[in-house]
Design goal:
414 residues, alpha+beta, Rossmann fold, 3 domains, nine-stranded mixed sheet, 30% helix, elongated
Length: 414
């Protein structure tokens, strides 16, 4: 085929154009970016992408410079889309960016749906678009630190074969698919699913974490705002750039939202529960940010016991909500969920008070069994030390990888 201009687009502050002479690539590329604004940006040059026939396959050319080569068209298309995603992220340094979908109902209430690949985010997002909600993104949502406004990125949904089957056999995505039979996927613009249109900005009203499980009965289970904050922290693209302020920003967001986990297999069965949650009034919560303190510099004193007096490690910050807390270490991106007792204990870990004395104080305050309080306090501090959040006692294990941390939250169940 002759060289085809797919379009010129602008998203956030990134402007780009796409051309191709590869017949099989023209349809998927046009659909992938069809919902982005087709106009130039006010500032900065436009980046040009060309996907062209090359020796033994296709080649991606960026601003006239030869780039990656692919033996198959699908690899070239997917790589181009991934590069655009990254460039949009790179151009969005003023916002904290989440791996999440977002949709807006007819009453201007916005649902945020974070989730890693395979969690069921796209299936739920697509079903809500079919139900008439406006679309903001299924890939990336930015949070404006000034006022918590959500910033969309309405690239087409990437629908895999499994999601297509769940969304309904009546859907007509056309013939523009990429990938082989085992991994066929479609870039689906919002108009192919529903008539709710596209929104670029909105304010969050609810956060729902998708959890698709084969054979599961549909359930929407409220989760604490503290747990929601941890889940959001683990679903960010660029948290490290924000440092301690990233935790405060996430806490501000969840404090204004209803938060739940949607477990489902049949997506149509979960929709009424999700839309009902979105229509429910939000009761904002208060939170307290506990800034990093200056450590005393005391050496590790040995294994944890009642005589230990741990303190936060350098740089560790915490946010305390009414239903729990979150501790966060920006340098390594580590985070840990605290229950209500843990949130109450954290500010009392000052590096001077022994756990035995702290246990006596908690026992009197809560009128609880002294041995049980002492045991729970030592267990909590052992977990904090193991995850690298306190000093003054020996850590015992390596802190978990973020995927392990997310899996542990899901395994706890509703």
């Amino acid at each position: 085929m002759s060289d085809v201009q797919i379009g010129s687009y602008c998203c956030r502050s990134f402007a780009f154009s796409i051309r191709t002479d590869v017949a099989e690539a023209a349809g998927p590329l046009a659909m992938a970016f069809g919902d982005l604004t087709s106009e130039a940006s006010d500032g900065g040059p436009e980046t040009s992408f060309e996907l062209i026939e090359g020796e033994g396959g296709v080649e991606l050319i960026i601003d006239g410079q030869p780039g990656a080569r692919f033996t198959g068209v699908a690899g070239g298309v997917d790589h181009l889309v991934a590069v655009v995603n990254q460039r949009v992220l790179d151009a969005s340094s003023a916002t904290l960016n989440l791996h999440a979908a977002a949709l807006v109902d007819g009453e201007n209430r916005t649902l945020l749906v974070p989730g890693v690949s395979g969690a069921g985010k796209t299936t739920l997002c697509g079903a809500l678009v079919r139900a008439g909600l406006a679309y903001m993104s299924d890939e990336m949502i930015g949070i404006d630190p000034a006022d918590l406004t959500l910033i969309g990125y309405p690239k087409a949904l990437t629908v895999k074969a499994g999601s297509r089957a769940l969304l309904g056999a009546d859907l007509d995505f056309g013939t523009f698919s990429v990938g082989d039979e085992a991994q066929t996927r479609w870039y689906v613009p919002v108009g192919a699913l529903g008539d709710g249109g596209v929104r670029s900005t909105a304010a969050a009203h609810a956060v729902v974490f998708a959890r698709r499980v084969d054979g599961a009965r549909p359930s929407l289970d409220t989760v604490s705002r503290a747990e929601s904050a941890v889940r959001l922290l683990l679903n960010t693209f660029d948290l490290g750039r924000f440092g301690p302020e990233g935790l405060e920003l996430v806490a501000r967001l969840v404090s204004t939202c209803r938060c739940a986990v949607a477990t489902y297999d049949d997506v149509d069965a979960i929709l009424p529960l999700v839309t009902d949650l979105l229509a429910t009034a939000v009761d904002p919560a208060e939170f307290v940010l506990v800034a990093a303190s200056e450590p005393s510099g005391r050496p590790i004193v040995g294994p944890i016991n009642a005589a230990s007096s741990p303190e936060p490690r350098r740089g560790v910050v915490a946010v305390l909500l009414e239903d729990g807390g979150v501790v966060y270490e920006p340098a390594e991106g580590r985070t840990l969920l605290l229950d209500r007792i843990g949130a109450a204990v954290w500010p009392m870990l000052d590096g001077r008070t022994m756990l035995a004395d702290l246990a006596d104080e908690l026992t009197a305050h809560f009128d609880a069994d002294a041995d049980e309080v002492r045991h729970d306090l030592v267990s909590l501090c052992r977990e904090l030390a193991a995850s690298g959040f306190v000093s003054g006692i020996e850590p015992s294990i390596e802190p978990p990888h973020w995927r392990t941390a997310l899996a542990a939250l899901d395994e706890r169940g509703p």
